[in-house]
């Protein structure tokens, strides 16, 4: 027997094997259904973006106790030119938002403006795609793909990345690397190469140089402490504070 009792509540039912249970109304969608979860996640995301919409208020709220950054230098939670906790990262969040794009694009622009002021106000330090001008370049790239704008800004960042590769591209030597920052995504040339790949039409030469470096780095071995190790073996610790765990280096 099945059905709904008077008043609309689910009816207690018994199947042909003597098992009993409560029948759910098929018209009511489960809160665990994929669509319900997507809607709830979208609502949470929208609320977070609304709370971060004002760059000045966000910066003021996050200038709180310092911590050690990946380079070991103490910095506030808000680190202006980073993808993790600065204007470029929030510009990425707003420019890449799929819901209510008409509201989010101006917010992305506000953070790009703040990041541009920071770049203009001090000399840039090479930092892959995570920190420094490279982080802002990546944010501008996504904003361009979303809106079609920022063409002249991208051209300036293309020139910056081309000059960066010509300046910092290291030789491939027969010894371990001093740091994974030479090649990793966050600080190194793999991250720079990702930007160059997206801009290959205007950055083909530096892209080829970076890919050539990474391929040569992946070939062969070098001697370290009496053993042969891959050429990309690095002597620094993978994280600040983990030096004691990796006295002989690591492969990240």
Folded structure, characterized:
The chain is mainly alpha-helical and 252 residues long. Among the domains are: 49-61 and 72-150, no CATH class; 169-251, no CATH class. It has helices at residues 34-51, 55-62, 87-95, 101-120, 133-147, 151-168, 189-198, 200-217, and strands spanning 12-14, 20-22, 67-68, 74-75, 221-224, 227-230. Strands 1-2 form a two-stranded antiparallel ribbon. Helix 4 (101-120) runs antiparallel to helix 5.
Give a brief rundown of this model:
46% of the residues lie in helices and 7% in strands. The chain is mainly alpha-helical.
| Pattern of helices and strands | EEHHEEHHHHHHEE
Number of strands: 6
Shape: globular
Low-confidence stretches: 1-6
Strand order of the largest sheet: 1-2
The helical percent reads: 40-55%
Average pLDDT, rounded to a whole number, is 84
Q: Using only CA atoms, what is the Rg? A: 26 Å
- Please work out how many helical segments DSSP would assign: 8
Spatial separation of the terminal alpha carbons: 63 Å
Q: Which structural class do you get from the secondary structure elements?
A: mainly alpha
Largest sheet: 2 strands, antiparallel
What proportion of the residues form beta strands (DSSP E)?
A: 5-15%
